[in-house]
Write a structure and sequence with these properties.
- It is a single chain.
- 25% of the residues lie in helices and 27% in strands.
- The chain is α+β, with helices and mostly antiparallel strands and 106 residues long.
- The chain has one domain (5-102).
- A four-stranded antiparallel beta sheet has the order 1-2-3-4, sandwiched between helices.
- The longest helix is centred in the first third of the chain and has 13 residues, at 5-17.
């Protein structure tokens, strides 16, 4: 079965931001919707960097924004995924882990 629409939106948006799209693999993926309709995702992604070397699994955080005021999120559409941060360095990993913890997704 295909994953729910928000998860597909997250995966598709994250893959689009990667340098070597065919190499992308996902590890854990957690998500939660807040009271304003924003869906936050935290997870791990693996792929290859611009030099073609494997990155190993690194943490990321991103969001699917809420639909515009006065409109409802349709079940068959997904708003555009926004990658907030990907933990490619030790400093970036700490930022991602802190944001995911604050979002209740760690």
């Amino acid at each position: 079965l295909p994953p729910p629409l928000p998860q597909r939106g997250c995966a598709g948006g994250l893959i689009a931001s990667m340098e070597d799209r065919p190499s992308v693999r996902f590890g854990t993926l957690r998500g939660a919707r807040n009271g304003r309709g924003v869906v936050t995702f935290c997870g791990e992604v693996d792929g290859r960097n611009g030099a073609g070397r494997p990155t190993g699994f690194v943490p990321f955080i991103g969001v699917l924004p809420a639909p515009p005021a006065g409109t409802a999120r349709r079940r068959d559409t997904v708003t555009e995924f926004v990658l907030v941060e990907i933990g490619g360095t030790a400093r970036d990993r700490a930022v991602v882990e802190g944001l995911c913890r604050e979002s209740g997704l760690s």
